[in-house]
Amino acid sequence: MNSVQSLKKQSQINGAQGIVSVMEREEVDKVFCVPGESYLPVMDAIYDSSTIELVSNRHEGGAAFMAEGYAKASGKVGVVMATRGVGGANLTIGVHTAYQDSTPMIVLLGQVHSKFRGREGFQEVDLDQFFKPISKWTYELQDGDRAIEIMQRAFRVAQSGRPGPVVISLPEDVLKEVCDAEPGPPFTKPRPTPSQSEVSKLENLLAESKQPVVIAGGGIKSSQAEEALVAFAEKFHLPVITAFRRHDVFPHNHPLFCGHLGLGTNPNIIDTVKNADTVLAVGTRLSEVTTQDYSILSTSHKLVHIDISDEVLGKVYAPQLGIQADAKEALETCYQLTIQPTWKQWASERREAYEKASTLQLDEHSPINSFVIDQLAKQLPSDTIYTNDAGNFAGWLHTYFPFNESNTYVGPTSGAMGYGVPAAIGAKFAHPKRHVVSLSGDGGFMMTLQEIETAARNNLATIHLVFNNHMYGTIRMHQEMHYPEKVIGTNLGSVNFVQIAEGLGAKGILVERAEEFQRALSQAMDTTTPTVIEIMTDPEQISIKKTINDLRNQS
């Protein structure tokens, strides 16, 4: 029996204790926050809990990213807390990321005293309305007696259907009110299964197909369907492409893996979808990036869309067959199909196209970024977890790194800068015995580098790579494409990240030449503290294939 539950047997509990008792029943073991006086009763109840650790962060944005990264890596619900309007505003970026990435997250925000609501009290914001557009559900607790009821509903909503963030506003006086309700049983995630008629229709569509392809998304991760996807693809010899930043849902060394639909995807990989006649989209919302600005699917495709949320089916493309189902249940049920694949040559051709587009070839003229990816693949264990920020530097990781094991990638489909560092720390909290590496540009790294101290304080040996080209590189690329040579706002000054890292309690290493990275990575792997490796990159090499001069000459 947990501490707060034990306390319930002895006497009545307050709303804050009721909230924590639900977290205990839901097996929450980490809560991330920047502390605030408006929700001190919740912090006090966590203090009395024997199973929940409170992680104090340096910024609410970092706390939200850390909770989101922890949720992705652990498969649990991420929980983050902040105070009133100011703290809530600061963590909004993490809530938006959880919303777009379909990550289950509970956001608890302290609120002003109920008697002061509507008077523009100190730091007052109508939090449930503020977060409504980027959350699955928002609610302001108005009665301490309902704290357990509302918290249980929050966990249910965050994990049901398409997962996402739930925001609960907590007036400080309500947290102290008596809570009489007894917590119910832990949440069990619904797993709907395709009907037999839907399976029969899928069988008919595939039987008529000559060039099918599977697009696998985050629903595979949410339902832990990676093995089911491999088995399904192997039985029917189906080529598989992963949706944007869902690299690890299918092993890249598998002969049926045919690429990743992301930013700057090689045209040969895009052609796999364009030239397919049947597209089986599983657990993906077919986002703007995955569909290359909604351009690669057309009415000539027969689209079979499987997703756990009915709101996703048909939202962008009207499917020939839409199946509302859990990804794992769907794949295991559809394994019974009796069709004989006639497209093995098609699958082999698309694999060859992927290999041609993604093979990393090094010579003395290769950018240092290429050597970094090569060494990451060679030196680190295959179960290492990678996170990345937004930026062109990530193109090397997305194009060339072989993700051959499940649950090894944590990336923001929202494209948020500042994500890499705190997400890596969250992943390390989830898997303390595994190596965790973040990749950031100098722009994004500066946004959340303060969380390096959080890692150091908690003895987490994360590895953080900073690709320093002294600019906001992605924006500079678009600037040069549309307004060549008119450089404004994208240049950045010189920052000594090695010294900053050491000041935050981490080890700092400077890498200026490709041959230095191998030694730096070896040192980072052997240390017991966080390590920041600052990698000086050529500003001219603006992307994998293009230099700034190339862009200017194309204009």
TrEMBL record:
Record domain Thiamine pyrophosphate enzyme TPP-binding: where: 389-535
Residue ranges of domain Thiamine pyrophosphate enzyme central in the record: 201-332
Signal peptide stretch: none
Pfam families in alphabetical order: TPP_enzyme_C, TPP_enzyme_M, TPP_enzyme_N
The entry's keywords: Thiamine pyrophosphate
Keyword presence, Phosphoprotein: no
Location of the Thiamine pyrophosphate enzyme N-terminal TPP-binding domain: 14-126
Protein family membership: Belongs to the TPP enzyme family.
Name of the protein this chain belongs to: Acetolactate synthase
Organism this protein belongs to: Allobacillus halotolerans
Lineage: Bacteria, Bacillati, Bacillota, Bacilli, Bacillales
